[in-house]
Specification:
Elements lengths: L2 E6 L8 H6 L4 H4 L7 E6 L5 E6 L7 H9 L4 E6 L15 E3 L2 E9 L2 H11 L10 H15 L4 H15 L1 E10 L4 E5 L7 E5 L16 H6 L1 H4 L3 E5 L10 E2 L4 E5 L5 E4 L8 E2 L7 H7 L2
Parallel strand pairs: 7-14
Antiparallel strand pairs: 1-4, 1-10, 2-3, 2-4, 5-6, 6-7, 7-8, 8-12, 9-10, 9-11, 12-13
Length: 289
């Protein structure tokens, strides 16, 4: 099953090395179970998006490790892929970039021919360069966001509402980032998605290092431990008891000041829900927790 990772650190750029490489269940560790690609998306000081990705598992990709250690950004979006749709190629590897935003998806849905027709009606088929259902979903979000005057939350709501009504759906867990905002959706309850709000000012005394695998790593986690940040992840990445499971159907928005707001604009279940038994064997294997 693909793994999602999103981090918002507010207005001050940080490094996400701890969560990407060093946490007890870091993204690199998770990639040993998800072999089909890995990528990291960030934003520079001018708000421009940058993506570094390869169709390799993160643990064996030296570029992933280098980027994870060096990159600084106000927001991060990372993904490790277990392919369900599309070949193991760079063009099918997450995150994807459109209109200066970054996107990653964990899940599967059908009816891609019907979705392609819908995208053609919007005039955005040029946004899709690979074969994945994920990039098509992002293209629909981009199209709806354009029609909503750049309102990404409304774009996500309209796109997912249409897919939930019209197409067979297994899971639509997503993360979208800009330099200033992060959105995350768990829908429906098929796969888990978790959130952690880290606020060192909420605890008395000096900030404790983030819980890592060794004393050496603990020392390197101190800077991030001193910073407020919000994490979104497919599974809890350390032993912090403050990780909480997002409710199904919850669309989370994290703003520039790290305010977290959640709305529930979707029906409890898609109109045409899929089960593992409904998927092709390769897709079913990729969606097994």
């Amino acid at each position: 099953m693909c793994r999602l990772f999103g981090l918002h650190a507010g207005r001050r750029p940080v490094r996400a090395t701890f969560w990407l490489l060093d946490a007890p269940d870091s993204l690199a560790t998770q990639s040993r179970r998800e072999p089909d690609g890995a990528g990291i998306g960030t934003f520079d000081d001018d708000g421009r998006a940058h993506v570094a990705k390869q169709p390799l598992a993160a643990w064996e990709d030296h570029a992933f490790a280098r980027e994870a250690r060096d990159l600084k950004s106000t927001t991060f979006l990372a993904h490790v892929r277990y392919a369900s749709t599309g070949a193991h190629t760079l063009v099918n590897t997450h995150p994807f970039e459109q209109d200066g935003r970054l996107f990653a998806h964990n899940g599967a849905f059908g009816g891609l021919d019907m979705l392609d027709q819908h995208l053609a009606a919007f005039g955005v088929t040029n946004l899709v360069h690979g074969q994945t259902d994920s990039e098509r979903l992002f293209a629909l979000i981009t199209a709806e966001s354009r029609h909503a005057g750049g309102d990404v939350g409304l774009g996500i709501t309209r796109a997912v509402t249409w897919i939930a009504r019209e197409l067979p759906v297994f899971s639509l867990n997503i993360v979208v980032t800009t330099a200033t905002d992060l959105w995350a959706l768990r829908y429906p309850a098929t796969h888990e998605l978790h959130i952690l709000q880290h606020d060192p000012d909420a605890s008395p005394g000096p900030a404790a290092p983030l819980a890592a695998r060794s004393a050496r790593i603990n020392a390197r986690s101190k800077d991030l431990a001193r910073s407020r940040h919000v994490l979104i992840a497919t599974e809890p990445m350390d032993h912090n008891p403050d990780w909480r499971l997002l409710a199904s159907g919850g669309l989370v928005h994290v703003g520039p000041d790290l305010t977290v707001a959640t709305i529930f604009p979707f029906p409890e279940s898609p109109a045409h829900p899929l089960t593992l038994a409904d998927l092709e064997p390769s897709a079913a294997a990729s969606q097994t927790p």
